[in-house]
Specification:
Layout lengths: L2 E8 L3 H8 L9 H5 L2 H9 L4 E6 L14 E4 L3 E2 L14 E2 L2 H13 L5 E3 L6 H11 L13 E6 L9 H16 L6 E7 L16 H13 L1 H4 L4 H8 L7 H8 L11 E11 L2 E9 L2
Parallel strand pairs: 1-8, 2-7, 2-8, 3-6
Antiparallel strand pairs: 1-10, 3-7, 4-5, 9-10
């Protein structure tokens, strides 16, 4: 049967992708950010999964105000990097895993979560920046990401958005779905987005280090309690875009300890301010 071996959590700042694509990762401003992922790239080569289930939010590329799914699973064979207004990122096409994606959709919907099944969509920086950070830059023509990826888009852009509790419970359902798949696949689940940031209004540029690090502490030690954090706390303490952190709860809800297993091993933790107008948070948890 398939299993979840680890969960990965990371910000997906678009400027990080631009810095990589333009060869600026060695500059003094950006170097501390990318140094925080040196361990992660090595870890990824040592712990390469068969499939990555990647939770992210679309930034008005695949979806728009015309159609806003709360949860959408990508079931296609492949996903093309999106043009977000300045051309697609120069990274490889993302290979999907339609068989596992369809199985997860079937299982999760039967567990009473309504998913939108997407058979064609482009993927933006929310998905490709985490892949670049964890896997390194890949040539868009001759290179390839190390394994298939199942994109899982969550609406945290247009209100109403899902609660942390709903996301945490969804993670539990995804774990059950993956563990019921009848092939011995090693799956990692990634939660991306955040951390504290606000892009507009009087509080534009807000960063709350204390909130961010407390969130990381609780995500590790008390995810059940963290799932009860109300939406308004994210907005008040972490800025209007800080609500992206509920996506991390999907990945955390899929870990073994939530279902009665042992506590995960913290393989890596990193936090840095600033990267563009946000804080960068990153965490790797391994199932024992």
């Amino acid at each position: 049967m398939a299993k979840i071996s680890a969960s990965v959590y990371t910000s997906h700042v678009p400027a990080i992708g631009a810095a990589l694509d333009l060869g600026k990762s060695g500059e003094s401003y950006w170097q501390p950010v990318f140094n925080g992922y040196d361990f992660s790239k090595h870890w990824m080569t040592e712990n390469k999964p068969d499939v990555i289930f990647l939770v992210y939010n679309d930034h008005a590329t695949a979806f728009s105000l015309d159609m806003i799914p709360t949860f959408a699973i990508g079931c296609a064979e492949s996903f093309t990097p999106a043009d977000e207004g300045w051309g697609p990122r120069p990274v490889p096409v993302v290979r999907g895993h339609p068989e596992l994606a369809a199985h997860i959709a079937q299982s999760v919907i039967q567990q009473d979560f309504d998913l939108t099944i997407v058979n064609k969509m482009d993927v933006d920086h929310g998905l490709t920046v985490p892949l670049s950070l964890m896997c390194g830059q890949q040539d868009p023509v001759t290179g390839a990401w190390p394994c298939p990826v199942i994109p899982f888009a969550v609406n945290v852009v247009q209100y109403p958005v899902p609660s942390g509790r709903r996301c945490f419970e969804l993670g539990k359902a995804i774990r059950k779905a993956i563990e019921s798949f009848d092939k011995p696949l090693n799956v990692q689940i990634w939660g991306t987005g955040g951390m504290s940031h606000q892009l507009q209004g009087p509080r534009a540029g807000l960063i709350n280090k204390e909130f961010d690090n407390a969130f990381l502490d609780q995500l590790i030690a008390d995810p059940e309690g963290l799932a009860s954090k109300p939406h308004i706390d994210y907005v008040r303490e972490a800025g209007s875009e800080g609500i992206e952190l509920v996506m991390w709860l999907i990945a955390r809800g899929a870990m073994a300890d939530v279902a009665g297993g042992p506590a995960p091993k913290v393989a890596h933790r990193f936090y840095h301010v600033p990267a563009s107008n946000t804080a960068v948070g990153h965490l790797i948890l391994e199932n024992k």
